[in-house]
């Protein structure tokens, strides 16, 4: 169950990063509130998952999901640039996440 909560927490991190971008520096109230709600939910689920997962594993997986997820959202939804170096960086992060999961 801790792993499921951790994955949801990571996906919520992607949501709050995206809604923060849409909030335009917290000047759009709807997106600002969405950012804060999803941020709190993400932190809460991360905290719960840390009751049974190691700190290093849980935090690394959470930030990795957030980083790669934000990268994908940036490309697919926001039209951000794609380059071989950025794709390699994302692949290396995913590889690290897989190794972290296998080691725990």
Automatic annotation (TrEMBL):
* Molecular function terms, GO-annotated: transmembrane transporter activity
Q: Which UniProt keywords apply?
A: Cell membrane, Membrane, Transmembrane, Transmembrane helix, Transport
Top-level division of the source organism's lineage: Bacteria
> Which GO biological process categories is it annotated with?
xenobiotic detoxification by transmembrane export across the plasma membrane
**UniProt keyword Transport, yes or no:** yes
Q: Which Gene3D superfamilies match?
A: 1.10.3730.20
Record membrane topology:
Multi-pass membrane protein
Which Pfam family is an annotated match for this chain, by its short name?
Multi_Drug_Res
Mind telling me which residue stretches traverse the membrane in this protein?
A: 27-46, 58-79, 85-102
Q: InterPro entries of this UniProt entry?
A: EmrE-like (IPR037185), Small_drug/metabolite_transptr (IPR000390), Small_multidrug_res (IPR045324)
Q: What is its main location?
A: membrane
Please report which protein family the annotation says this sequence is part of.
Belongs to the drug/metabolite transporter (DMT) superfamily. Small multidrug resistance (SMR) (TC 2.A.7.1) family. Gdx/SugE subfamily.
Stated name of the protein: Guanidinium exporter
User: What is the organism field in this record?
Assistant: Acinetobacter larvae
